[in-house]
């Protein structure tokens, strides 16, 4: 029988088997109808999926397509997670952006609410969310209610795992991972192309040129649409607006600022 591998020191001079605890958490909160499981195609979802399968609980696996997902992520899910249902939205994200009249931004990431957070309505949703991912996620809990849907509950069984724990588990069980984590990409996190939270714009253009160009055209189209409808604009033209949107470090674009890639 194979030994579990993820351990952590405790105040009781013993070892907590984090892997076994995660499995027990999954079993403990299993609803009668089974879990609605989010499959992002990232490393944390990979570990959660593996644990759920090992546990044997009932789970309905979904990937919420945003239409600006990295192609490698969709390829990986289709090849290695054939059971995952890819939920295709009625309106692609870039068209939704024109409809809303505003692009996704760091402080106004409406894209997550529209494309990622609606899945699993009224269900117990199991995810790979971890506190180590960000300061915002550190404030969340292992089991928590959804504030927008009172009938929806989140279960995050690897909430207290570190990045090292995740990779240790993946390497031990030889789990295939999204190619974006490997050379030549070497991304630490995977997600939407040109996500407002992404700062390394150069690498986005290098590895996802077609999607970046689609963003370029959509942002200019958004600007022109605002002008045509008489809505206020704070930039001299669509290209200026595009450069401002790409500048993730400043609230206002500087007069001498240029695109940071060639």
Q: What can you see in these coordinates?
A:
The protein has 262 residues and is of the alpha/beta class. It folds into 2 domains: 175 residues, HUPs (Rossmann fold); 46 residues, no CATH class. Helix content is 38%, strand content 11%. It has a 6-stranded mixed sheet, with helices on one face. It has a two-stranded antiparallel ribbon with strand order 1-2. The longest helix has 20 residues. It starts with 6 loop residues before the first strand and ends in a 16-residue tail after the last helix.
In total, the number of strands is 8
* CATH homologous superfamily designation of the largest domain: HUPs
Low-confidence stretches: 10-15, 252-262
| Sequence of strands across the biggest β-sheet | 5-4-3-6-8-7
Distance between the termini: 55 Å
The CATH architecture assignment of the largest domain turns out to be: 3-Layer(aba) Sandwich
The fraction of residues assigned to DSSP E strands is: 5-15%
Classify the fold: give the CATH topology of the largest domain: Rossmann fold
Question: What count of structural domains?
Answer: 2
